[in-house]
């Protein structure tokens, strides 16, 4: 197919010199120049020309010609038709939106009433004469603005998704690292345990071997002693049986002696005690297994955090113990200075130290025997201390609340949790890098709730109380 440039060049060669458009019904005059029939006819009808048959001249070369000498140029008409066909095909090949499908002309305008694109010929047509017709760029302006707004929203959404992807990929990498570390810890601990078990097995089997030998030895001694006693009593029995056969006169002179047999024991008391005491030899194994399990759970779990309550943040209605490990609610306000760090509306207190990374855990012993509530979790360092504060993640607070026999997770919308047993000891675990705040029953190990967050600044343990007699204490 001819290129767009070559087709355009050919089209320029078949333009009418009068209208500068493509030749329509081309005719040739005496000088050999070609014009549209309608254009040349109008040219010959110019007002004021006298004796037109003698005075008309070619619009190009000014050579005289006779109006009646028009000769249709059918060959040129075929060439023009072929060029237009190639031009339309070229326009369609470049994109149908650039050319009018009806006239093959380039589209410049847009009709707002009919919402169609127009070329010059379409615009001049009567169908759009009374309509609002604008240039394409002007008409496309509002659409471009709408597209730009959509692009802005989509780019923002894409950035948020990319941020989520980046955050989650980091979280996955942290988890993979933690799993690899746990795997190495398990291998190391079980290797140590395997060595210890092999040693303990050797010790216990050796002790059992010695007990086995001592039992067999005492069995031999017992058999020897019993055999001797049986022989002795058998001899005495034979003697007495022989005397018993004698006449009555001789029996009167026989003296009969009774002898008691010695009752030997097959197992000596000392050996029996050793056998009974053998389970005690497994106590080191039992103790070692307990240490192993505690150490393994410790290394696989979170690092116990040493938590102390910060009196500078404590609400005036909270009474803190001297060691800053316990708090009790009181309706009586304490004489506490109103510092920027202190909560003045919600009855809460923070820990003295916060966390900027790592995996930490602490246990809270909750006493709500007289009613009331207890709030536990973590907060961002910049959490608002003054005025009303909504306890939810959007405010930088991730907490659960124990109150009136039930537990609620204070998310964007509070969620009441269904638990098998009301916890009295709650374990709070923080995985800073992964972004987990997990609550569990420290006694039964039952999972209570887990918040998922993305931490970027320091976070502190938070504790809250409400209600007469409610209290809590901290432990590892």
From TrEMBL:
Signal peptide: none
Gene3D superfamilies to which the protein is assigned, alphabetical: 2.60.120.920, Classic Zinc Finger, Zinc/RING finger domain, C3HC4 (zinc finger)
Sequence ranges assigned to domain B box-type in this UniProt record: 95-136
GO cellular component: cytoplasm
UniProt subcellular location: Cytoplasm
InterPro entries: B30.2/SPRY, B30.2/SPRY_sf, Butyrophylin_SPRY, ConA-like_dom_sf, PRY, SPRY_dom, TRIM/RBCC, Znf_B-box
Any one GO BP annotation for this protein: host-mediated suppression of symbiont invasion
Similarity section: Belongs to the TRIM/RBCC family.
Name listed for the protein in its UniProt record: Tripartite motif-containing 10
Source organism of the structure: Jaculus jaculus
């Amino acid at each position: 197919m001819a290129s767009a440039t070559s087709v355009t060049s050919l089209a320029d060669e078949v333009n009418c010199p009068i209208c500068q458009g493509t030749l329509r019904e081309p005719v040739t005059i005496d000088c050999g120049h070609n014009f549209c029939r309608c254009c040349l006819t109008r040219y010959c009808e110019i007002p004021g020309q006298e004796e037109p048959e003698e005075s008309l001249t070619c619009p190009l070369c000014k050579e005289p010609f006779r109006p009646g000498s028009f000769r249709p140029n059918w060959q040129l008409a075929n060439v023009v038709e072929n060029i237009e066909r190639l031009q339309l095909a070229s326009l369609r090949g470049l994109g149908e939106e650039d050319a009018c499908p009806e006239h093959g002309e380039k589209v410049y305008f847009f009709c707002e009433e009919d919402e169609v694109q127009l070329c010059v010929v379409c615009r001049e047509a009567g169908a759009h004469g009374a309509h609002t017709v604008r240039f394409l760029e002007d008409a496309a302006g509002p659409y471009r603005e709408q597209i730009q707004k959509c692009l802005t929203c989509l780019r923002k959404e894409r950035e948020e998704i990319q941020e989520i992807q980046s955050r989650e990929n980091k979280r996955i990498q942290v988890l993979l690292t933690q799993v690899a570390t746990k795997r190495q810890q398990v291998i190391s601990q079980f290797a140590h345990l395997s060595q210890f078990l092999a040693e303990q097995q050797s010790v216990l089997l050796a002790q059992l071997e010695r007990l086995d030998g001592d039992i067999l030895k005492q069995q031999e001694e017992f058999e020897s002693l019993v055999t001797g006693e049986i022989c002795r009593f058998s001899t005495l029995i034979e003697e007495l049986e022989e005397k018993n056969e004698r006449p009555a006169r001789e029996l009167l002179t026989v003296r009969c002696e009774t002898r008691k047999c010695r009752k030997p024991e097959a197992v000596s008391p000392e050996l029996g005690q050793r056998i009974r005491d053998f389970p005690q030899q497994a106590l080191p194994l039992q103790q070692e297994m307990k240490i192993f399990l505690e150490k393994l759970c410790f290394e696989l779990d979170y690092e116990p955090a040493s938590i102390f309550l910060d009196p500078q943040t404590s609400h005036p209605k909270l009474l803190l113990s001297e060691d800053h490990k316990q708090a009790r609610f009181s309706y009586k306000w304490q004489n506490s200075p109103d510092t920027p760090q202190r909560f003045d509306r919600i009855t809460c207190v923070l820990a003295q130290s916060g966390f900027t990374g790592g995996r930490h855990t602490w246990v809270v012993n909750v006493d709500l025997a007289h009613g009331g509530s207890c709030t536990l979790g973590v907060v961002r360092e910049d959490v608002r201390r003054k005025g009303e504060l909504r306890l939810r993640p959007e405010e930088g607070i991730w907490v659960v609340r124990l109150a009136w026999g039930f537990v609620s997770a204070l998310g964007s919308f509070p969620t009441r949790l269904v638990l098998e047993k009301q916890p009295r000891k709650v374990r709070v675990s923080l995985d800073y890098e992964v972004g987990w705040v997990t609550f569990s029953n420290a006694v039964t190990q039952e999972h209570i709730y887990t918040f998922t967050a993305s931490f970027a600044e320091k976070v502190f343990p938070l504790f809250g109380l409400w209600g007469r007699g409610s209290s809590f204490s901290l432990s590892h």
